[in-house]
User: Fold these one by one.
Assistant:
Number 1:
Amino acid sequence: MKVGVLTSSRADFGIYLPLLKALKEDDFFQMELIVFGTHLSKFHGYSVQQILDEGFEPKHQIHQMIMTDEPVSIATSYGVTAMKFAEFWQNNVFDCVFCLGDRYEMAAAVAAGIPFNVPFAHIHGGETTLGAIDNVYRHCITLAAKWHFVAAEPFIVRVKEITGTDKNCVVTGSLSLVNLQQSPLFGLDEFRNKWQIDLSIPSILITLHPETVAYQQNEFYASEAFNAFKQLSQEYQLIITMPNADTSGMIYRNVFQKLKATNPEKIYLIENFGTQSYFSCMKHVGLVLGNSSSGIIEAASFGKYVINLGDRQKGRLTSPNTIDMSFDNELIINKVKEIFGKEYKGTNIYFQLQSVQKIQKFLKNQH
């Protein structure tokens, strides 16, 4: 079975990783990676190198990024991506093509495949994030997909509402949690040697992206974050992973650069951690803060509490470790001090056994 895998960012590649390893080792599948998006952008960390470091070949590389973050540039990049993939789908045929999540460039690649009847398999469909335009892109991908591998039972309902059927829908849990079982994580000394960051110091892991629905509010949100993080850095070490290529993303990048200048010894800006380092960092910090799906999906498995800011993830199913808050610097500071270092002892709603094997078995039965 010839399988293509669309990967446009460090985030989706990290989630795919256990599936990629399994497909590579299974003679039933002939796998080819289709690499585009921020993977090929040196400004965003050139994470195609992470693909190579993991032992995979970026078989197809499609350059289509527009390097600004205004709405017109995002829309233009969508159009360019669709044009590039129109030619790609004309010249390349697969029995199955994996697509993941909700990025605009992922949606454009999928949209271009519709006239070619590309058999897409969508991972992480059926979810809701009302504060991000990604919500629209995710549902568009779902509608275009033939097969659906969802992270939890309630998401089947949404997929059925969108597509009219749940016939080709399988609950697999989140693949990213398989990484926690398969990837050895760094201890404190190993992490310090690799990143020159000492996580024995009380630390907070921060991943904060723009809100792309109410994108006009990002100046205010970034300002509130700056004020909160500046004060928090007096007591805690802040490890900040830089935002994706979204509308208004540069607002946060500029604020984080300004923030680091206020306390360079306590604030670290990371362009591309990679899966192993990101999870290792999450393991050792006292709290996760921001508005990323990574905190909502993975942090519960580490026994960490998550402060989820604003509406970017509004509507997403969460475990009880997630605490929703508005962008208010005083409230953020007070909540951090209240829950920092506390252990979450509940379950993770995104965890399922045999996630990868369920996908392999399903596809073999279709072929």
Number 2:
Amino acid sequence: MSGFIADTIFALASANGRAGVSVIRVSGAEAVDLCSKFLGCLPDVGQFRLRPFKDNGQIIDHVLALRFQAPHSFTGEDVIELHCHGSPAVVKAVLAALSETGRARMAEPGEFTRRALENNKLDLAQVEGLGDLINAETEAQRRQASRVFSGHLGKLVEEWRQHLLRATALIEVTIDFADEEVPTDVTPEVQGLITQVVQSLDVEIAGSLVAERIRDGFEVAIIGAPNAGKSTLLNAISGRDIAITSEIAGTTRDVIEVRLDLGGLPVTLLDTAGIRDSTDTIESIGVERAIDRAKSADLRVFLKSNTEEQPPFDLDADDISILGKADMQHGGGISVSGQTGQGVDELIALISARLSDRAANVATATHMRHRQAMLDARQGLDDARIALAKGDSHTDIAAEYVRYAIRKLDTLIGRVDVEMVLGEIFSQFCLGK
């Protein structure tokens, strides 16, 4: 993909709206000459200079110009960054002046990053990591996205790839010299290389589910009988009135969601309908939805109305069972009251701890696409080991299975089949990135 040639493009790289400073990025073969037309002399490569931006002899603004020379820039092309005052009028005038020359066009969403990919400045996983970094709302999301953007997944893939290329080479030796005596049996080394990759893949596959939850957010469902205090507890945890509370049982008919940052982790808290048998059709639908959503959540908080109450379905070992309305009743263990705030901080800490334990097993692979590619590669390697165990007559089949696994791993970083996913990935990027 190196040597990518395209139009010179420009766009506002900072957020829209009034600001102290706005950044306009220009990238492409015409970037230097185009910006020279408005600024006169440009700074040296890697330097910056304050210059008046003039259009038709009139000063639009005084801008700080930074110059990056290909291939040592984000896009791999010549890049000029113009740091101007963040007035919407100034930004509009600068963009209009650049456009009216006819020598450059407005960039499409994600086009700067796509050029970085095309010019081998980033691999596909890094592109996805950058997208996640831009959208990160919590510290855990930022750390995870930064790790992917830094190329950790690409390094893993390269390590796996080298082991499998070695395994393929060893297998092919036995194929090429099938009629001659090979001095050493290479099968043990090949099996060892494949096993090493499979074990590493298993760790990443297991952790990828957690990574997805960190990227998209954990779901925590509050469940219990009607009028157990679930909505009041939701309001207390979120610090604002999200759910309607009432002494009338069955007030909550649908699942109410609120997104929170708990200890740096993205969490969506779910207030579900009170679970009971009901002749009310609408309430019954709400109860069914509550049970389905609660079962699919990452963690459940069962709010008991009394110490003897049992959950409506079997809870997981990590789920939390707690007595509600602690201001009105007492019992053993932890109790909570959304009305007075008693036990709320302790419950938040417990939820954070349970989710943090899961987050500790996070992998570098963060998207479903990553996990599927690794699962496909692992299946190929399992098939290769089976073929190898069948002896010399299946050696060529084993080699093909290993090559299949390599191709699947290559899709992780965009070495092959990249066009299949580019549209979806870049559609989520903002203009100017």
Number 3:
Amino acid sequence: MDVNRERLAASFTELCEIDSPSRREGRISRHLQQVFRELGAAEIVEDDSAGRTGSESGNLIIRFAGALECTPIFFSCHMDTVQPAEGVRVKRSGDLFTSEGDTVLGSDDKSGLAACIEAMRVLRENERPYRPVEFVITTCEEIGLVGAKALDPALVRAREGYALDSSGFARVITHAPAANRLTITVTGVAAHAGLHPEWGVSALILAARALARVPSGRIDEETTANFGTISGGAASNIVPEKAVIEGEVRSHSMAKLERVTGEIREIFTATVAAWTDPTGSAKGTPAVDVAVRQDFPVMQLEREEPVLRRVEAAARSIGMTLTYERAGGGSDANIFNGNGLATAIVATGMTNVHSTKEQVELQDMVDLTRLLLALLTESSC
């Protein structure tokens, strides 16, 4: 079965030029539903997640029955893109796709979507039997995996699948860290900085003392911590009453994740507790609140698991050599794995993502389509 290169290129271009920044996925959702309907989808489900995500669309679950008696699988992509994403125009130079430079291209994740569409077109025109397959297409991935978090996993009938959403090519991501999101609020006492500074307690100074002591950056080969924003204070002549710090801890080890998170909590708590009032004039005492929420769970797939054995066999059948890697970022696959859906991440060829220099090669999308076809046909049953 030959992939139609120019049809794939045209489909990719069309997808990219449908603007779909996070929460504004309505147009791309309608387009995808129409395309898969024309390809003979047995069922198209749009879930009710829009009310929780704020998107113009729910997540899509698109089912094809398939004639092979093979284990059902799913492919997952997200339909949203990061900003700047208004008025995307695709520039093609030979087989290299970029944007005209004022916006992102959108290959994250429309390179994956284009490969899914082309694979089903090839199967349809060649009248080849294939395994039962679902396409799980989420909203709001780029703003915190929001669509995947709102997806009811019971809507996905296949229990194993592949998230087509990573840079590079012929890479399979098998491990990704869990992450805790931290919101740390240090509360001091406001006072006029010129008239009565001794009446106040500076929340910013206390926050700075704690930040100077907490673990940050790369902690070890499995663990990182970062503090990304700090806000507080009202004016230069007011002792700042509040400082709010947003940060995160990530680790491939849940024990290390909890240990580092706990250490940060303890340092902030101890720093505030150690405050003293040198003049005895302060109009109150400081306090701190450390709020922790899990952003996404850990993803851990071992090489002997069926979802990885299957993609290895499919790649071998088309002469493709895959590499297997650990990642430092989170994706929808973290959420799916956390919900009991074994999901490996497969790279699509996109590079320089989340920038106006984003690009992708047509050959990489062709080869990705070939891999999907191998996964869908008897070579990997």
Number 4:
Amino acid sequence: MQTFVRSTLAAVAFAAIAFGVAGAAMAPTTLTVTMKALNGSGETGTAVLTDTSAGVKVVVSLTHGDGAQPTHIHAGTCDKINKAPEWPLQNTADGHGTSVVAGVTIAQLLKSSYAINVHKSTSDLATYVSCGDIKAK
């Protein structure tokens, strides 16, 4: 009986440790991305990502936003970004934009390198004004 109890306690302890380690490695359900100004724009701020049942919600808040600015999630990092957008977001308008990317989670985004990129305007997509790497803190 004592052997059975010890074995059971050992199994429970192992499961608790394993769950703790696995729990610590789980992706967050909310992630704040620091948005950095590019090309002298002064457009800094954050993009807050939140997992929802519909997909990942992205709320962009920038200082000095100017009009409607195309915003996307791109593969790569701000230093080495793939110019083709992976997922379009709603335009950031006067520094603010909210989007939901259907079928995507923060965990999926963290499995590879992605960045949120804001363009100067719909007529000047080549000029990037703000960018933030999506990465675990």
